[in-house]
Design goal:
globular, 6 helices, Nucleotidyltransferase, domain 5
Amino acid sequence: MITDKIILGIDPGTTIMGYGVIKQHGNKISYITMDVLKLDKNSNQPIKLKKIFETCLDLIEKYHPDAMALEAPFYGKNVQSMLKLGRAQGVAMAAGLYRTIPIFEYSPKKIKQSVTGNGNASKEQVAAMLLKLLNLKEIPIHLDATDGLAAAVCHFFQRDIGGEGEASFTGWKSYVSKNPDKILKKPL
């Protein structure tokens, strides 16, 4: 029996967060939506994180995803940017965990590889391939939306090769057990 599944993809960011939702029916996928959350008007970092959390909860309530696929932060040279990006990913992840949605993380390279066949593809190449895969009419203005959609499509493709993604979590206990190095053992 084939069951439909909804996959929510998130491209975390503290200026623009991209997201996309697809429906899986057997070995086929169809487009539901994609868009961006613009955060550049809010200069206060905690307020931005609150908005990311609330938006992710709203998406979960509206689309009832069976899985959330997140683009994992890439390693950069700017520590402050990495910290902000990690926080954005963390609150998006927390929203999924709060609603007991399995979380899957994929590196940017893995997402590009899954969608285009080239781990070094540009954002434009990823968007163009999604246009073909999902019969979309046009590429959105903000490619962060297609990045979020690409995370969802990547998860769909990964399910055939194990379905576990690069990391998956079904709750806080699962996250802690798979990430013991990220848990503070002693108070500072």
